[in-house]
UniProtKB/TrEMBL annotation:
GO terms for molecular function: tRNA binding. Gene3D superfamilies: 1.20.1050.130, Nucleic acid-binding proteins. One of its GO terms (cellular component) is methionyl glutamyl tRNA synthetase complex. It comes from Schizopora paradoxa. It is found in: Cytoplasm. This is Nucleic acid-binding protein. Residues 1-147 form the GST C-terminal domain. The lineage of its organism: Eukaryota, Fungi, Dikarya, Basidiomycota, Agaricomycotina. Pfam families: Arc1p_N_like, tRNA_bind. Residues 218-324 form the TRNA-binding domain. It comes from the Eukaryota. One of its GO terms (biological process) is translation. Keywords: Cytoplasm, Protein biosynthesis, RNA-binding, tRNA-binding. InterPro entries: Arc1-like_N (IPR053836), Glutathione-S-Trfase_C-like (IPR010987), Glutathione-S-Trfase_C_sf (IPR036282), NA-bd_OB-fold (IPR012340), tRNA-bd_dom (IPR002547), Tyrosine-tRNA_ligase_regulator (IPR051270).
Length: 392
C-alpha cells in the first residue's frame, strides 16, 4: 500500500501535513507490524478535527510510557495524530492540559520535531506552535506502592517424595520397628537419604541466588553495556529530569531511562549520544515514569556544579556491547541478573569508580589499590574532560 493511499482518507490540511513531514516509505513503518499500527492510527486521525476516536484521557494513559506511537522513531502516525489533536489541544486551558501530562509532553515533543514544524508552518491554514505554561503546573501526588506480602516458601515436593520413596524401599521389618527403634541402621539411612535429597532440592531452588549473591560485592556483578540515546525529552512532572529512550541492543526495543541531568547537560548534548548504561538495577519509578537503567556519568571532584559528563564508550561501539573491568578476576565474570537493593552492591562498589589522569574510566580496588579500567572489546571508556571524577 502506497503512502498516498494510506493518507487519502485524511482531510486537508492533515493530508498535506503528513505528506510533507513524512515523504519516505519508511515513515509509514519499517516492518509489517509497524505498518499495520500506523494505518490504524491514521484511520483514527481521519475521523476529523474533533477527534472523536482519540479520547484525550485514554490517549494520555496510552502515551505515559511512550515517546512515539509506533516503534522507536517518528512515523506518519505521530504526524497524523498531532495534526488531528491540534484544534483540541489549542483550545485547552492550563488546567486541562495539566490533567493530561503524558499527552502534553507527547504533543509538545512532536510539534517541536524539525520536519513536523516545517510541515505545520507550510500547510494552509498553518498549524501554529502551541506554548504550554508549565511553571505553575501542580505537582502530581502519587501514592506509594503498597508493601508486597511475603510469600511462604513452597515445600520441596521432590525432597518429600524422595524421602518417602527411600523409606518405602526399606524392608517391612525396618518399617514396623520405626517407632520403637528410630536409630536403627535402616531407618537412619532412610532419614539421612531424605535429608540429603531435601537439601539438594533446596539447593536447586536457590542455586541461582546463592551463585549470584554469595561473597563480597565485586564490580563484575554490575551489568554495564553500551547504549545509544534514540530520543530524549524533559520529564513533564520534574524540572530536573530527562526521559530517554536508550537502545542497548535488546530485541524488545529501547529502555526508558530517567536521569537527573537537566541542570548539568543541555538536551542538545544528550541527543544521539552513545554512553554506558547500568542495566541490572531494580526498575524505579521516577515521578510517575518507570526507569529501567541508569546512565553512567562522571561528576567533577569539585562537585556537580563544576561539571557532569556522560561516560563515553570507545569509537566503533554498538548498542549492547559488553562493558567490563580489566583484570583476570573480572574480565570473564558474568554480572548479576539484577542487583539486590538490600545488599547495596552498587553502593559498595561505587566509591572506587573514578577517572584517571588519562580521563579513562576505572575502578580502583580500595583494599589493594589495583586499577581496573572500564572497557569494551574496542577500547577503554572515557570522560571527555574530567580527571579524578566520581562515577555514578
Amino acid at each position: 500500500m502506497s503512502a498516498n493511499s494510506l493518507t487519502s482518507t485524511l482531510p486537508s490540511p492533515l493530508r498535506d501535513l503528513v505528506a510533507t513531514a513524512c515523504p519516505n516509505d519508511e515513515d509509514f513503518g519499517s516492518n509489517e507490524k509497524d505498518k499495520a499500527e500506523v494505518v490504524n492510527w491514521i484511520q483514527q486521525a481521519a475521523s476529523g478535527s474533533n477527534v472523536k476516536s482519540l479520547e484525550p484521557k485514554e490517549l494520555d494513559a496510552h502515551l505515559t510510557p511512550k515517546t512515539f506511537l509506533v516503534g522507536n522513531r517518528l512515523t506518519a502516525a505521530d504526524v497524523a495524530v498531532y495534526g488531528a489533536l491540534h484544534p483540541t489541544v489549542k483550545s485547552f486551558q492550563p488546567q486541562q492540559y495539566y490533567a493530561l501530562p503524558a499527552l502534553t509532553r507527547y504533543f509538545d515533543h512532536i510539534q517541536s520535531r524539525p520536519s513536523v514544524r516545517k510541515a505545520a508552518d507550510s500547510v494552509n491554514p498553518p498549524l501554529a506552535s502551541i506554548t504550554f505554561e508549565l511553571d505553575n503546573m501542580p505537582k502530581l501526588e502519587r501514592k506509594a506502592d503498597p508493601p508486597k506480602k511475603k510469600e511462604k516458601p513452597a515445600k520441596a515436593e521432590g525432597a518429600t517424595q524422595s524421602a518417602d520413596a527411600g523409606a518405602a524401599s526399606k524392608e517391612g521389618k525396618a518399617q514396623k520397628k520405626e517407632k520403637k527403634e528410630p536409630k536403627e541402621k535402616g531407618q537412619a539411612a532412610a532419614s539421612e537419604g531424605g535429608s540429603s535429597k531435601k537439601g539438594a532440592a533446596n539447593a536447586g531452588n536457590k542455586a541461582a541466588a546463592v551463585a549470584e549473591d554469595s561473597g563480597e560485592p565485586v564490580p563484575s556483578m554490575i551489568d554495564l553495556r553500551v547504549g545509544h540515546i534514540l530520543d530524549v525529552q524533559k520529564h513533564p512532572d520534574a524540572d530536573g529530569l530527562y526521559i530517554e529512550q536508550i537502545d542497548i541492543g535488546e530485541e524488545t526495543g529501547p529502555r526508558t531511562v530517567v536521569s537527573g541531568l537537566v541542570h548539568y547537560i543541555p538536551i542538545e548534548q544528550m541527543r544521539d549520544k552513545y554512553l554506558v548504561a547500568v542495566c541490572n538495577l531494580k526498575p524505579a519509578n521516577m515521578r510517575g515514569v518507570k526507569s529501567f537503567a541508569m546512565v553512567l556519568c562522571a561528576t567533577s571532584k569539585d562537585g556537580k556544579e563544576a561539571g557532569i559528563e556522560l561516560i563515553q564508550p570507545p569509537p566503533g561501539s554498538k548498542p549492547g556491547d559488553r562493558v567490563y573491568f580489566e583484570g583476570e578476576k573480572y574480565e570473564s565474570a558474568s554480572p548479576l541478573s539484577q542487583l539486590n537493593p538490600k545488599k547495596k552492591i552498587f553502593e559498595t562498589i561505587q566509591p572506587g569508580f573514578t577517572t584517571l589522569e588519562s580521563k579513562e574510566a576505572a575502578w580502583v580496588d580500595p583494599a589493594t589499590k589495583s586499577v581496573h579500567k572500564i572497557r569494551t572489546k574496542n577500547g577503554v571508556c572515557v570522560a571527555p574532560t574530567l580527571i579524578g571524577a566520581s562515577l555514578s
